[in-house]
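Late entry, written up from scratch paper. The run itself happened at the end of the previous shift, but nothing got recorded in the book at the time, so transcribing now.
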Amino acid sequence: MNKAGSLSPIEIGALVALVNQARFGEAEHRVRALLTRHPNAGILWKILSVALVRQRKDALRELRTTTELLPDDAEAHCNLGAALHDKEQWAEALISLRRTLDIQPDNTEALVDAANALKALGRAREAVALYQLAIRHDPGLLEAHNNLGNALLELGRIEDAAGCYRLALQLKPNDAQILCNLGNAQRLLGLLDQALASTRRALVLDPASSVAHNNLGLILCALGQRDQAVASYRQALVLKPAYVEALNNLGNVLRELGVRREAISVYRRAVELDPGRAESHCNLGNVLFELRRVDEAVASYHQALLLKPDYAPAHLSLGLALRQLRRPADAELSARAALAIDPNYVDALSLLGELRADRGQFAEAEDFFQRAIGINPDFSYAFSSIATHRKMSNDDSAWLKGAEALLAKPLPLGHEISLHYALGKYFDDVGQYDHAFEHYRQANELTKRYGSHYQRADLTRLVDQLMGRFDTAFMRRWRTEGPTSQLPVFIVGMPRSGTSLAEQILASHPCVFGAGEVAFWNAAYHANQDAQREPRLDADLMAGMARDYLRHLTSLSGEAQRIVDKLPANFLYAGLIHCALPQARIIHMQRHPIDTCLSIYFQNFFSIGPYANDLGNLAHYYGEYLRITDHWRAVLPATSLLDVPYEALIEDQEGWTRRMLDFIGLPWDPKCLDFHQTDRVVITASKWQVRQKISRSSVGRWRNYERFIGPLRSLVE
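Output as recorded:
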C-alpha cells in the first residue's frame, strides 16, 4: 500500500474534520494542493473522492485512483461501487462491491448495493440471497426489506414479497413508496380492495408519486373501472412524461376502451422513449393488427422478438398476424414457440385451436379450446370459439353456465363483445330467438365503443364517383384494352351472401386455387384517384395494376389455371377490375337482403366496416350495394359477370356449379359436389358452414327475427 509519505496525522485529521463539518469545497481545495506534493498518497485521493461525492461532482476518476493506491481498503472499494451503482453501471459496480465483501463480508451497505446491482442485471435469485444476508446482519435495514420484496416479486413469489413490504412498514409505517409496493403485491394476489387502500394511502402521503398513480390505474383496471384508470395513468404521465410503463398501460386501457388511434400514438411515444423495450413494440403491433394494418403489425412483432427472443406474447401475436396473412404453417410455429416458453399460455392453445378449425379439424380444435379452459376457466375466447365452430345444443349447459358467469365479471371490451356474440349463437342454435337477438344487439352496441363511425354520405359519394367514371361510354371504349389472362376469378357480393361457399365449391376443382380475400383493388383505386380524374384512364396505369395483381396471384399458386379472389367488397370495383383484366370472370353472389344483413349483424367480424353494427347503416349499405351492382350489370359485358342466387345454389347445387365452371372456362369435376371434404385453409366466419353439406337451414332464417328487423324491412318492401 502506498503511504502518505511525509503527511502528518494532524494534516490528515484536519482534512477529515473539514469533511465531517460539511466544508467539502474547502477540503477539496486543500487536498488538491497537497496532491501536487504527494501524488501517490492514497488517503488524499480517498478524502478528495469523498469531498467530490458529497458535492455531487463526478468522482469516478478519484475513486478508481483510490482503489488502485489502497487495494485492501474495503471502504474505498465500497465508495467506488456505490458511485457506480448510482450511475447504474451495474456490472462494474458489482465488481467493486464484491471486492469490498471479500475484504469485509459483513459490510451491509455493500451487501445491499451488490444485491441491487444483481437485480438490475436480471439476476434476482442471487440478489435475494444478498438481501437476506444483509438483513441477518442488521434486521433494521429498511431498504433491504423493501428491495428484497421487489426481487421476490420479480421471481413470482408474491406472497413472500408482500411479507417483506409489511416488515418494512413496521420499521417505517408512513413510507409512501413501500405502501405503493405493498399495494402492487396485493393487486397481483387479487386482494383488490386492500391494494386500493394501500395505494390511496401512499398517494395521500405522496401525491406526486407517479408510480403510485400508475399502480392505482392497474388496480382500477382490474376492478373494471377503466375510465378512472385512464385518469390515473394520465396523472402519472403529467408527473413523469417519459414514464414508459405508464404509457404502455395507458395504451392498453385505451385499446380496451376502443380508443385505438390514440393508443397508437401512446405506444409510438413509448417506443421513441425506449426503443429497446420489446413490450412497447408488441403492444404497438397489437393495436395495428386490430386496425387491420397487418403488415405493419408483423414488423412490430419481429422487432419485439429481435429485442427479446423469449417473449411469448410477441410469438403469439406474430402467429395471429401470420394466420391472417394465410401463412398457417408459420403461424403454428409461432404458437408452438410461445408454448415452449410458457406451457400454460392459453392464448397460444387457442391459436392452435383456430388453426385446426381453419383446416376443418373441428374436434381437434375443440380439444385445444377445452385445454385452455382447463388451465384458465376464465379464458373467454375459448368459450367463444367453441360456440363458433359447431352447432350448440341444450346439452351444452356447462358451456352456457361458464359463459354467463364470465360475462358477469369485469372484462376487457373485446372479451365482453365476443361472449355476447357467442351467447347469441348459442341461443340461436337452440331456438331461443329473443335471447339470441338481445345478445347480438349488446355485442353490436359494445362494438360501437371502438370509435369507428360509418359515414353514409362517403359511401354514396364513392358509388356516384364510380358510376360516373365507369359509365357505359367509357366501358365500351375500353373493351379492347388490357391483358388476356383468364387466371383471376372474382367472387363478389355482400358479406354472408354465400361468397365463401362459392369459393369452396370452385376450389374443390383440381385446376382452381382459392386464395381467400386478397386485399388489392380498394387500395389500388384510392392510390390512383388523381390519375383517374383524367378524361381517359391512363393505359400504363391500368397495365401496372394488372401486372402487380397477377404477380401477387401467381406467388400464391403458380400451378393453378384459375385463382379465386373472394373479397366481397370488390363489388365496388368490378368496373376497374374489368378495365385492368378484361378476360377475368366476376361471380356475383346474391342472397335475400334481410338474411344477408342479419347474418352480418350476427357475426363478430375482424375486417368488416362499421356499417355492420347498426341495422339502419346496414340497410343503407345494402342499398348502395344494389345501386352499384345494378350499374355493373348494365355496363359490363354479359360474358364477364355472372349472378348466382344463393338460394338457387342451395336448391340446385350441381346445376349452378356447372354454370359457374362453364362461366370460368373449366370442365365439370364431381369433386365440386363434395366441397365440404376439401382440405384447404378457410379463415372467414363461414369456415364451419363450408365444411357442411348443402342445407336449407340458413334460407329464410330472418323470419325468426322478424319483429326485430326494423330498418331492414324496407329492403324487401
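The first strand starts at residue 488 and ends at 492.
(Scratch paper discarded after transcription.)
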